[in-house]
Amino acid sequence: MYITRFAPTPSGPLHFGSLVTLTGAWLRCRSMNGRFLLRIEDLDKPRCPQGMSSRILKEIELLGFDHDAQILYQSKNQARYLQIIADLAKEHEVFTCTCTRASLKLRPCSCRQKLSGSSEITACRLGSLRFAPSFKKEKGFYDELLGFVPYHEPLSFGEEYLILRRSDGIISYNLACVTDDLDTGVNEIVRGQDLLNATVPQLSLYKALEAPYPKYFHLPLALASKDHKLSKQNHARAVLSICSPEQALKAALIFLGQDTNFITTAMDCKTILSKAIDLFDPAKIDTTNRVATDFNS
Description:
This protein is an alpha/beta fold. Helices cover 32% and strands 18% of the residues.
C-alpha cells in the first residue's frame, strides 16, 4: 500500500508553501488509495511556540484535509532516536565532534575517532554526534517527478559526516526523519525541492540500517522572491490570514497545475478536494520553483 506523510515544523502557522506541499502530498496519496500520515516535527523546542502544533492541526482541518492513524510527535519519540544511534554505532563509525561551523568551512573535521561502545555514545554530551558511513554515498537518486537528481557535494567540510545529534542535544532532522519514515512504513516521500540535497545523506542512513529505500516526489517551491522560498524563517504570512480556506486551496491547486474549472463559490474545501482527487494529474505539475506573488511577505 502507498503510504506518505506531511510533516510540518510548528515554528509558525501554515504559509502558502506549506499548503502547496500538503496539497500535493495529500492528492497524490488519495489518488493512489494510500494512507496519509501526519507528523509534527517539534524536536527544536526553542523554535516552536507553545500552542503552534494545535494551530497547524486546526488549519489542516479547516482546509479540508483528513489523515490516517495517530499523529506522531517527534518530541515524544526521543528514546527511539537514541536507540537508532546506538544501533548505528554497532556497525558504523559514530563519533563526537566539537568543531565549530566556522572552522569546518576552512578544514575537514579533526574529531573522527570511534567511541568504545554504544552506551558511551548515547550518554556523551560533549559536542555533536556524527555518522561516518563505511560505504560511499549514492551519486544521486531517482525522483518520481523530476527524474534522476544528481547529488551535489557539500561546500562545507561540516557536511561530510552526517549529524545525528546536535551539540545542543537536539536530535538531527535527518536522523529523526528517516527513523519515523521507517517506523511508520512511509514508502514515498512527497516534499519540497529545498530538501533535494538532503536525500542522498538520508539514503546513507537507510543503507546503514539495512532498510529499503523509499521513493521520492519533490514538489516545486513557492518563492517569496527569486532567491528565497516562502518560509517561516523569512516571515512568510499565514496563508489563512490572507484569504479563505477555499481560496487558498484553489490557489495551491493552480500552483500545482491542476484543473480548477469545476470549483464554484458554493463549494467547501472537502468538496473541492474530493473532486480534485479524481482530476489529479502529476504530469501537469510545473516543476519550476517560482514566486507566489499573492502570498509572499
